[in-house]
Specification:
single chain; alpha+beta; Arc Repressor Mutant, subunit A; 4-stranded mixed sheet; 3-stranded antiparallel sheet; 9 helices; 12 strands; elongated
Length: 227
């Protein structure tokens, strides 16, 4: 078997991100020899040591298959679901393992290590592992990094498009056991015109600050100072 036949075989089986060990096994050769062949191939590109992707595969699929288990969330997930217009050049991947950021074909992939209790609420679409629409909003508030004004517009759009279940978002937030998170979520939902009274008993009992809301003031109900 030749290298191109092995790569075509992986593609036909739905595997677009693979290791040098996969190729070595298919060719019946050493990993050193397989690595040499891959370094000269135009059909496969290197992600990191021992890991490659087939030409044409999406950045989402690449990002979510570098570390196992993991899933794409935050900015890239907002874009995936059509909830954000701007082009994403940095993909945030939630994982249980530590991994340094890497650049793959001009796309930065950042890995956010989390505890097992917060590693849930993702789904597999084709070969891409991605946060569910509900979990991505919880992740954005929990890990930070996405402007509040962006989340407000995105969650309003998601609701109009029947993409999210509000009760599920609230349940996911409570599952993480963070009262600060619940307060931020309650404020976000009501800022977008969505009632969130069922979350009040889980809210943080003091004031916290939220920035980049597109407005300024104090919300006593959720204990939020915002600007």
């Amino acid at each position: 078997m030749k290298l191109r036949d092995a790569i075509d075989g992986l593609a036909r089986s739905g595997t677009h991100v693979f290791t040098v060990y996969d190729i070595a096994k298919m060719l019946g050769k050493s990993t050193a020899y397989a690595s040499l062949l891959l370094s000269k191939s135009k059909k496969a590109h290197r992600i990191e040591r021992g890991k490659y992707y087939i030409e044409g595969v999406s950045s989402y699929e690449i990002a979510s298959n570098i570390v196992y288990p993991s899933y794409v969330s935050m900015h890239a997930a907002l874009q995936y679901y059509g909830l954000m217009d701007q082009n994403v050049l940095r993909y945030s991947v939630i994982t249980l393992k530590r991994h340094k950021p890497i650049n793959v074909g001009g796309t930065m992939i950042n890995f956010i290590r989390t505890k097992k209790k917060s590693f849930f609420g993702y789904t597999r679409k084709s070969n891409t592992y991605i946060a569910s629409p509900e979990k991505l909003f919880v992740d954005c508030l929990y890990f930070g990094g996405v402007p509040f004004s962006v989340l407000k517009e995105a969650i309003a759009t998601a609701r109009e498009d029947n993409l999210i279940d509000i009760a599920t978002i609230g349940r996911y937030a409570v599952m993480l056991g963070s009262r600060v998170l619940v307060s931020k979520l309650g404020f976000l939902l009501e800022f977008a015109g969505i009632n969130a009274d069922t979350l009040l008993r889980y809210r943080y009992r003091s004031y916290i600050s939220v920035q980049n809301t597109g407005a300024s003031g104090k919300n006593k109900k959720w204990g939020i100072n915002y600007d």
